[in-house]
Automatic annotation (TrEMBL), chains A, B:
<dbReference type="GO" id="GO:0005737">
    <property type="term" value="C:cytoplasm"/>
</dbReference>
<keyword id="KW-0963">Cytoplasm</keyword>
<protein>
    <recommendedName>
        <fullName>Phosphoribosylformylglycinamidine synthase subunit PurS</fullName>
        <ecNumber>6.3.5.3</ecNumber>
    </recommendedName>
</protein>
<comment type="similarity">
    <text>Belongs to the PurS family.</text>
</comment>
<dbReference type="GO" id="GO:0006189">
    <property type="term" value="P:'de novo' IMP biosynthetic process"/>
</dbReference>
<keyword id="KW-0547">Nucleotide-binding</keyword>
<dbReference type="InterPro" id="IPR003850">
    <property type="entry name" value="PurS"/>
</dbReference>
<dbReference type="GO" id="GO:0004642">
    <property type="term" value="F:phosphoribosylformylglycinamidine synthase activity"/>
</dbReference>
<keyword id="KW-0436">Ligase</keyword>
<comment type="subunit">
    <text>Part of the FGAM synthase complex composed of 1 PurL, 1 PurQ and 2 PurS subunits.</text>
</comment>
<dbReference type="Pfam" id="PF02700">
    <property type="entry name" value="PurS"/>
</dbReference>
<comment type="pathway">
    <text>Purine metabolism; IMP biosynthesis via de novo pathway; 5-amino-1-(5-phospho-D-ribosyl)imidazole from N(2)-formyl-N(1)-(5-phospho-D-ribosyl)glycinamide: step 1/2.</text>
</comment>
<dbReference type="InterPro" id="IPR036604">
    <property type="entry name" value="PurS-like_sf"/>
</dbReference>
<keyword id="KW-0658">Purine biosynthesis</keyword>
<dbReference type="GO" id="GO:0005524">
    <property type="term" value="F:ATP binding"/>
</dbReference>
<comment type="function">
    <text>Part of the phosphoribosylformylglycinamidine synthase complex involved in the purines biosynthetic pathway. Catalyzes the ATP-dependent conversion of formylglycinamide ribonucleotide (FGAR) and glutamine to yield formylglycinamidine ribonucleotide (FGAM) and glutamate. The FGAM synthase complex is composed of three subunits. PurQ produces an ammonia molecule by converting glutamine to glutamate. PurL transfers the ammonia molecule to FGAR to form FGAM in an ATP-dependent manner.</text>
</comment>
<keyword id="KW-0067">ATP-binding</keyword>
């Protein structure tokens, strides 16, 4: 089973990487960009019997820093 | 308009970060994980009139390294 974990910074948390990308886009002449936030995308290939609970635990314990980040678990049809 | 850019390594490209995460998950006792790949998730807030062409150009020129990475553009309903 393929699972995608989307990890993004919580609203209000400063994102220097996103600001750098925003700046770079403007320098390249791309107008109309209002905001940029950079997060992570973790693609897991796990056994089909893996429970939702186990996936949440993986995020809480290792993949995401829940103090400053939100995560979203998306199961991808195989 | 909110746009999410999903950037992942092309198949076959070594992913040391993914291997480290895989290893760490196993050390924490999570079984059944077969593969882990780590990519990036870039959330853009752009003007509504931004064309698909401009979004592709942003990816090609700055956001993704198309030699080793694939990107996927997803428009999110506002």
């Amino acid at each position: 089973m393929k699972v995608r974990i989307h990890i993004s910074l919580k609203p209000g948390v400063l994102d220097p990487q996103g600001r750098a990308v925003h700046h770079a886009l403007e320098s390249l002449g791309f107008g109309g960009v209002e905001d940029v936030r950079v997060g992570r995308l973790i693609e897991l290939d796990v056994a089909d019997e893996t429970s939702d609970e186990a996936l949440s635990q993986m995020c809480e314990k290792l993949l995401a820093n829940t103090v400053i980040e939100n995560y979203r678990i998306e199961k991808v049809a195989a």
